[in-house]
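Section 5.1 Outputs to date
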Amino acid sequence: MVLASALASAHDAGAWVVVVGNGVVGLWALGAHRRAELRGRALWIATAVAEVAIFVQVALGVAYQNVEDIEPTQFHTLYGFSALFGVGILSSYRNQIRDKVHLLYGLGGLFLMGLGIRAMVLHR
């Protein structure tokens, strides 16, 4: 019971980390597409942290589901796993459009944020 409660709390908090984190790095990358001074290592570290948060969030959700033996709504699961695939798709296009990589990650970060918002709305 304590484990389930801890997992539920972590999953709830993690949702905000995913949404806010990907929103911030998405806007930052869009700014970096226009202004070179916003580019740099810090942007890519923050982007990696925001994207890793998605993997952690999905793992917490799956663990909570298994501990409580519950079935989440179909679309909640769809949006969570779509975010995982989204991270992979962003990575796969990174080298193909090197000259527009900031635009890719800007729009991609906002898309991942949107998937997180949808998952949160459908959670309850």
